Amino acid sequence: MCAAAITLAATTFISDDHGEFPRAPKASASRTPTDVELAGTRLPVSHTAGPRVLDSGLARGFSHSAEGAAYAALHLSIRVTPEVGPDVYGPTLSTQVVGNDVAALRAVVDEEYSRLRENYDVPYGRPAGSVRATALGYQVDAVDEHAAAVRLLLEALDANNDSGLVTFAIQLTWFHNDWALVAPAHGDWSPMVGRVYSRIGYTSFADA
User: Apex CA 101: angle with CA 179 and CA 44, to 5°?
Assistant: First the structure.
């Protein structure tokens, strides 16, 4: 997910032949999600859904569940934005993004990072700018033990600094015992982003 693309309460499951994929247990009142900050936006962290490992800006260890897929969709999509810098998006793209279009996505992110770095006059490797979006919730459209389709609900700022609700559709796959992003066709997230005008049908990250 890049800033350019963004600018533009029941969760649904799909069953496979083995039955419905389980959702992770909800966190108790004494174990509510915390959050971390990355590229100017706050990212929720769930004790049950993950990520369980936060190291050097990277996020790993998401639960093999619908909620885990939702948290992975948010954390990993932010970590492949140019704003976080190549010290974060580079390793994320190398180890947590799969599909035929990973190289195309890397090229898009590298190009945008070069532009941002010049605009903000920062050394190579450092974050450049901020992600102009706030995570509000998610809807899991489909999930089984191998893959998931998640729509994130975000409040985003446009070029005029006006806020609005957008959805961001993300495909994931279960890869090496964790969720991984599937790179979009041609490295372009824009077709995955759409405007919405209601939060109805989305689960708040705070409630997961």
Answer: 35
The number of helix segments (H) and strand segments (E) in the chain equals 4, 11
**Exposed/middle/buried for 5, CB within 10 Å: 0-12, 13-18, 19+?**
buried
> Mean pLDDT across the stretch 83-89?
97
Q: Average pLDDT of 24-32?
A: 39
Tell me how many domains the chain contains. Answer: 1
- Among 2-16, 41-55, 71-85, 153-167, the range scoring the smallest mean pLDDT is 2-16
By C-alpha distance, which of 7, 26, 129, 131 is closest to 70? 26
C-alpha triplet 127, 194, 71: angle, nearest 5°: 55
Q: Phi/psi at 128 (nearest 5 deg)?
A: -135, 110
Location of structure tokens 């700022």: 157
Whole-angstrom distance, CA of residue 83 vs CA of residue 180 = 20
pLDDT tens-digit map of 175-201: 999 999 999 999 999 999 999 999 999
Q: What is the pLDDT of residue 34?
A: 84
Phi, psi of 193 (to 5 degrees): -105, 135
3-state SS assignment for residue 176: coil
Task: List C-alpha distances in Å: 128 to 90, 93, 107, 119, 163.
Answer: 14, 18, 17, 8, 21
Q: Is the peptide bond before 44 cis (omega within 30 degrees of 0)?
A: no
State which residues form the domain around 138: 3-207
